[in-house]
Design a protein that fits this description.
Blueprint lengths: L1 E2 L4 E2 H26 L21 H9 L7 H4 L6 H6 L1 H4 L3 H37 L5 H30 L2
Antiparallel strand pairs: 1-2
């Protein structure tokens, strides 16, 4: 059979369409297999092996170490440095002994306040991961778990921002 408009046979085109249509379900199955038990699809490759799927080892390390993780960027980038940054630049800033002491006290207080929050975030993320891994997640447990994580993340960010604000008055 020939297509008069283009002067070519429609049979090869039909065969090509049939091949493409046959390939689509196979490709979809390959992608879905990663989500439901097979190998992870490319964007998530390797993440299925993490201890806590939603957190990279670096994120867990940063949370456990108390690193800033960019939580106070609105303060930092608008001229409100945190206590650690001020102490790192103490000589260049010409801090007095009293300013250095007050800033060190703020850093110590910030760490004392934020490290338990950070530990709680790691524990809550692990608990959320377990709900899915154990197949025990329910709509109610999902809402509760994500609410706890979000609240602690907000608490952590607020604490960092608060200490940046307090540092400005040292």
């Amino acid at each position: 059979m020939t297509d008069r408009r283009y002067g070519m046979s429609s049979m090869p085109i039909l065969a090509l369409v049939a091949l493409v249509l046959a390939a689509v379900p196979a490709a979809a199955q390959g992608h879905a297999g990663g989500q439901y038990g097979g190998a992870a699809p490319a964007p998530y490759a390797g993440m299925e092996k993490r201890a806590i799927k939603a957190l990279s080892p670096q994120q867990v390390s940063d949370l456990e170490a108390g690193d800033g993780m960019g939580l106070a960027l609105p303060a930092e980038l608008n001229g409100y440095p945190g206590p650690l940054h001020v102490l790192e630049l103490a000589n260049a800033l010409g801090l007095t002994a009293e300013q250095w002491s007050r800033t060190q006290a703020l850093l110590d207080a910030m760490r004392a306040e934020t490290i338990p929050i950070r530990s709680r975030i790691v524990r809550e993320e692990a608990a959320l991961d377990r709900l899915f891994a154990d197949r025990t997640v329910t709509p109610a447990s999902l809402v509760e778990a994500t609410r706890l994580i979000a609240t602690k993340q907000g608490d952590l960010r607020a604490a960092h921002l608060r200490y940046h604000l307090m540092t400005a008055s040292c």
